[in-house]
TrEMBL record:
This is Mos1 transposase HTH domain-containing protein. InterPro entries: Mos1_HTH (IPR041426). Gene3D superfamilies: 1.10.10.1450. It comes from the Eukaryota.
Length: 94
């Protein structure tokens, strides 16, 4: 997932984690890290809770920057398959 910034830039979650890791290694607190990143990127680029979550991972020596695989329903729907299913069983559309 990317975060759209005011200047038309996109920043990925991985890039945001790199910035947070940099702030963590500088010894900054989460509030200071959030303020620093928000002042240079965008005021909406980062929430304090996101910084806290990442800092907790870093404190436990987990420096994985990539998103972990998730289970559950897919994020995208194949519209052709959905249309075919609806045509096969009209009860699905009511």
């Amino acid at each position: 997932m990317d975060v759209d910034l005011e200047l038309g830039m996109n920043i990925s979650c991985k890039e945001l984690r790199v910035l947070l890791l940099h702030e963590f290694r500088l010894g900054h607190k989460t509030t200071e890290a959030t303020s620093n990143i928000s002042s240079t990127m965008s005021k909406d680029a980062l929430f304090i809770r996101t910084a806290q979550h990442s800092f907790n991972w870093f404190k436990n020596d987990n420096f994985e920057l990539d998103d972990l695989p998730r289970v559950g329903r897919p994020l995208e729907v194949d519209m052709d398959v959905l249309k075919q299913l609806a045509e096969e069983d009209s009860r699905l559309t009511t």
